[in-house]
Amino acid sequence: MPSAPPPAPPDALRATAVALLNLSGLGLGYLLLRRRIPLAACLAATAVLLLVALPADADGVPAAAPVLYAVVLLAAAVHGWFAGLRTRLAWPGRRPLALVLGVALLAVPVGGALWYDSARHEAVERALLGRLDRADRQVDAAAGQDFTTARSGYREALAVYRDIAVHHSGSRAAAQVPDRLKTYYTTVAAAYSHGDYCAALAPLAYLRTVPDSMPKDQLGTLARWPDDRLATSLYECGAKGLADGGTDWVTHFGDLLRTFPGSAQAAKVVPAVDGAEKKAAKAVSGKDPCGAVEQLGTLSTQIVQLSNGSSAQADGLTQVAGRADRSGDAGEYRCGVKQYQDGDYAQARQTMEKFVTDNPHDRNRDRARRIAIGAEVAQTLPAAGKKLPTTASGGGISVTVKNDSPDDITVLYTGPVTGSFTLKACGSCKAYSFASPLISGWEPCSDSGRNYPHRTISLPPGTTYFVHKPKNDSTATPGSDTAKLRYGYVYTECAYTTQTLGSTY
Question: What mean pLDDT is reported for the chain?
């Protein structure tokens, strides 16, 4: 008897049925051929694939795994076809039934692949929703921080929104991005909604850069959302700085005029600056005219700087700057008066001399000149500063001032009348020794043989304060005299120079 049954005649239909059954991934073709080892290999390959692929996640399986598994299935199908060509099936006995069964079982790998793809897609959706949620939490966390600190967090969250919108446009997470962006914008710009306009500047400027990286179809009206709010913040912050006397307002108004030149906010810049100029000009008549003058000077410089930096509203700003200059010049007079009345004679003199130079046609110019003289006298004789000099002139008492000095001298006087004049040097005169005034019977201007340069002025009765000083840049100490003038007398003042080692008086 033969050791094994004779091989069956070749049957292509049976071989095809075995190949199809092996493509199911379950090795059923080998089962019907009673080949246990290849059957076990097919089942092992399927088990390994299931272990690698399940549970389905967003990352899927390694690319090599389905490729290797497909190779195994094809190898099993080819090997099964050749094995089934001459081997009878254990069951079912009919070849057509085996063939139908093989075709039907192809639904196993196909259905498994479809199911896995659906499960993986859902895992991707869950992962994207998780990323979206984490980005939302990051925005919430950044909302409680200073914008400079929070900026990086906002940028990272925006990058997540962009990635989901651009690279996962059909996902459920991408459909939620537009609503998330609305929350994002209002969160970043929270300072504006709270009325903190200066703090809102940087966040709103940042939001204007978002369209550079975010698709326009995701932003919609948000693309222009920050513009009006930024214009308002620039104006309000600039107006506050202008009212507080700061310097940042120039930058804020300048940014407003350059960035939004045609906006309603930009149209309010000139009126705001004009109002500040009028307020400062009005303050010249108040308790601190000098502070008002300083403010007007600073304001004029700032307005010129603003007008030079932007063509928008430049003409109006130039006009306001001119008024500020004029108001400041006019205010110098009041400032000088206040300084004189406060006893700051050196500063009062400087202010009034500047006013006289800057305002040759002002109606107060003559009195300002006399106040400057009175202030200079009061620097030597403080009692002379008790009353503010007037524009009064003349009087019924003659006072002659002679120069017994080798230097040209300027004579300053104040009292009921204030003025000054210059006497030329006495060519034949010399400085006296420091001890000369102590010598009994010594008198300056007493040499009848000399023709002392002199001048006679008419003054009213009362106390007049005189100061004689060299006309040149000499460091000599000015001479001074306090004269109480009365009718019925003729008065003579004599200017002379005394000197000792290293000093001149």
Answer: 82
Residue 337 φ then ψ, to 5°: -60, -45
- pTM surpassing 0.70? no
Write down the H helix ranges in 168-309: 172-188, 190-193, 197-207, 216-219, 225-244, 248-259, 269-283, 289-309
Distance CA 45, CA 232 (A): 69
CA 395 to CA 413: how far, in whole Å? 14
Q: How far apart are CA 91 and CA 58, in angstroms?
A: 42
Spatial contact of 8 and 90, defined as CB atoms under 8 Å apart: no
* Per-residue pLDDT reduced to its tens digit, 116-162: 555 565 666 777 888 889 999 999 988 878 898 989 999 999 999 99
DSSP string, 105-171: HTHHHHHHHHHHHHHHHHHHHHHHHHHHHHHHHHHHHHHTS-HHHHHHHHHHHHHHHHHHHHHSTTS
3-state class (DSSP) for residue 505: coil
3-state helix, strand, coil in the chain (%, to 5): 60, 10, 30
Q: Please tell me what DSSP assigns to residue 444.
A: T
- CA separation for the pair 23, 32 (Å, rounded): 14
Q: In what order do the strands lie in the sheet with 454-459?
A: 454-459, 397-404, 491-496
d(CA 113, CA 65): 13
| Closest to 191 (Cα-Cα) out of 181, 180, 205 | 205
Tokens of 45: 């390959």
Q: Tens digits of per-residue pLDDT, 193-220?
A: 999 999 999 999 999 999 988 888 888 8
Q: What are phi and psi of 427, to 5 degrees?
A: -60, -35
The distance between the two most distant Cα atoms of the chain, rounded to a whole number of Å, is: 181
DSSP per position, 386-428:
GS---S----SEEEEEEEESSS-EEEEEESSS-EEEEE---TT
